[in-house]
Design brief:
CATH class of the largest domain: Alpha Beta
CATH superfamily of the largest domain: Class I glutamine amidotransferase (GATase) domain
Strand content: 25-35%
CATH architecture of the largest domain: 3-Layer(aba) Sandwich
Structural class: alpha/beta
Shape: globular
Distance between the termini: 65 Å
Strand order of the largest sheet: 10-12-11-13-14-19-18-17-15-16
Length: 368
């Protein structure tokens, strides 16, 4: 039976709806995503760790959830082994689902992993508030409680101290491929990055960002810095490691999303927090080299400061909506990165060619 659940923002906004999933109180940054489908991929994306997610599309849950994937595998549609969000906010939760692969409802899946949700919220009004005032902290809790009790009991994630440790593995994993090998630096990587590389004939060494990266780099033909949650300023150790690799590694270094920000900081550029971030599967970007435009999948709350790029580096892609940096490249070495997700999942696959370019450069190193 649905129970009353309240969402309270730090600016005092209170929204009352009905709960589904687990009933645990939680807190976290409240962010929104405008995708019309792909809630399975979105909820398991490590970039959402520590956040309460608002889905703007009004119907969520209508195609249910497939079985749990076997442990240790990378089967679709999941992007990690568990739900990553703190809580989920929707306008209309659909308990009656229909899909040939579904075996359970979204609510049942969330309940099994201790993730609360709330339906009956005016997500359009909530999204407008977040757009006007920026991302805010929020609390999701039993509607009979007051905020003081919720703040005492709500579970949260410390975005500075805990988030990177929670979304990365403790050990190095190896995935078989072809003649090329890629070091994937995991800061909360989506599994489809591994799948995309394997599909193109590359083996993958997936290593946590705090591993001995220079040693692992000796085994590979290319390095990819993955996506992840949080502020790149909190990854000083990784930035230092990447700066060292830029001086010693002879092959290409490619960054995706958070990897774009890490590579930029390693090069000497700065980053900043966006007001409400880019979280959708229809973000338009333009390649400044070819002048072609692409529709991309994005999920990030920070960006590279355009005017801070050092000599020898230049902007590669820009966001057509707001002009923010969407990628950069080095003029003299094969170092480049993008702020969007060429692996999509969910989202358009228009920019999957970037993996082809990266592996082509990796192959050039292997042939030396």
């Amino acid at each position: 039976m649905l129970h009353d659940v309240k969402l309270v923002l730090e600016d005092g906004t209170e929204l009352l709806g009905h709960g589904f999933g687990a009933s645990a109180p939680v807190c976290g940054e409240v962010v929104f995503n405008t995708a019309m489908c792909g809630y399975l991929e979105t909820l398991t994306d490590p970039s959402y760790r520590g956040q309460i997610l608002v889905m703007t599309y009004p119907l969520v849950g209508n195609y249910g959830v497939p079985p749990e994937r076997p442990s240790g595998t990378l089967e679709r549609p999941y992007e990690s082994g568990e739900i990553q969000v703190q809580g989920l906010v929707v306008q209309n939760y659909m308990s009656d689902y229909s899909h040939h692969a579904a075996t359970r409802s979204l609510s049942d899946w969330m309940m099994g992993q201790g993730i609360p949700g709330v339906t009956g919220i005016d997500t359009r009004a909530l999204t407008r508030r977040l757009r006007e005032h920026g991302t805010m902290r929020g609390w999701l809790f039993d509607g009979r409680w007051n905020l003081a009790r919720a703040k005492r009991e709500a579970a949260g994630v410390d975005m500075r101290e805990e988030v990177f440790q929670l979304v990365t593995p403790d050990e190095v994993s190896r995935f078989a491929g072809g003649d090329l090998d890629v070091l994937l630096i995991d800061v909360g990587a989506k599994d489809n990055i591994v799948r995309s590389l394997q599909a193109r004939g590359a083996g993958v060494i997936r290593a946590p960002w705090h591993a001995a990266l220079p040693k692992l780099a000796e085994e590979v033909d290319g390095i990819l810095i993955a996506n992840g949650p949080g502020d790149p300023r909190d990854l000083g150790a990784l930035v230092a490691d990447v700066r060292g690799l830029m001086g010693s590694f002879p092959g290409p270094i490619f960054g995706i999303c958070l990897g774009n920000q890490v590579l930029a900081r390693a090069a000497g550029a700065d980053t900043y927090k966006l007001s409400y971030g880019h979280r959708s599967i229809n973000q338009p970007v333009q390649d400044l080299l070819t002048r072609r435009s692409y529709i991309t999948s994005q999920n990030h709350g920070y960006a590279v400061s355009e005017g801070s790029l050092p000599a020898g580096w230049e902007t590669w892609f820009v966001n057509i909506n707001d002009g923010t940096n969407e990628g950069l490249h080095c003029r003299s070495k094969p170092f480049f990165s993008v702020q969007f997700h060429p692996e999509a999942s969910p989202g358009p696959r228009d920019t999957g060619f970037l993996f082809d370019d990266f592996l082509r450069l990796s192959g050039a190193l292997a042939r030396r």
